[in-house]
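sry for the spam today, last one i promise. struct tokens for design, 192 residues
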């Protein structure tokens, strides 16, 4: 995994975490590359920097492609995501960029309940690459954020703050990676 971007002198507080915008940009661009044009963002109902960043990466990618962004807000509860996915109309969206893997798990369950196959009828991507993602049905395409690397970065940020409290807070933004599995339908479905 590439090294973190270290931002010194940034006005916000100390921080270590993934580049949320880059992550959803990777997922959205992957789906666009598979031919999807009706891609919705599922989840991200909370008003915080993580939700804003993930929405922004998706929305900017859709705008660059000349397409409308669609937000289907819900909590990170699997049941809430399942209910929304189960109620999706047959005509679209054809792909979902989910706020995180829990939302994606719910989306796949909802699609299955509606008689639709994730990866074939509707592509689904997650964010976090939790251990279960590789073993889900179908295996989940997701954004890997390497929690161990984030933990190491958080320790560096904390130590910097403790050793140099008079200097501006340190922020480490870690690059995400796209992990392609069957839930996005790469190689399985035709483009719309």
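last one done:
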């Amino acid at each position: 995994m590439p090294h973190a971007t270290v931002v010194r002198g940034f006005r916000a507080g100390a921080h270590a975490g993934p580049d949320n915008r880059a992550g959803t940009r990777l997922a959205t661009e992957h789906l666009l590359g598979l031919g999807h044009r009706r891609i919705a963002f599922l989840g991200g109902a909370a008003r915080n920097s993580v939700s804003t960043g993930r929405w922004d990466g998706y929305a900017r990618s859709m705008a660059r492609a000349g397409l409308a962004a669609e937000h289907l807000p819900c909590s990170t509860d699997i049941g809430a995501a399942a209910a929304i996915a189960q109620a999706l109309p047959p005509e679209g969206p054809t792909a979902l960029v989910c706020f995180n893997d829990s939302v994606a798990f719910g989306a796949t369950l909802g699609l299955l309940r509606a008689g639709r196959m994730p990866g074939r009828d509707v592509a689904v991507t997650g964010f976090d690459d939790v251990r279960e993602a590789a073993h889900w049905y179908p295996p989940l395409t997701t954004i890997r954020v390497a929690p161990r690397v984030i933990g190491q970065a958080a320790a560096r940020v904390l130590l910097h703050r403790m050793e140099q409290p008079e200097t501006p807070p340190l922020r480490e933004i870690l690059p995400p990676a796209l992990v392609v599995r069957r839930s996005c339908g790469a190689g399985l479905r035709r483009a719309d």
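The helical segments are 20-33, 49-64, 78-86, 101-113, 147-163. ok im logging off now
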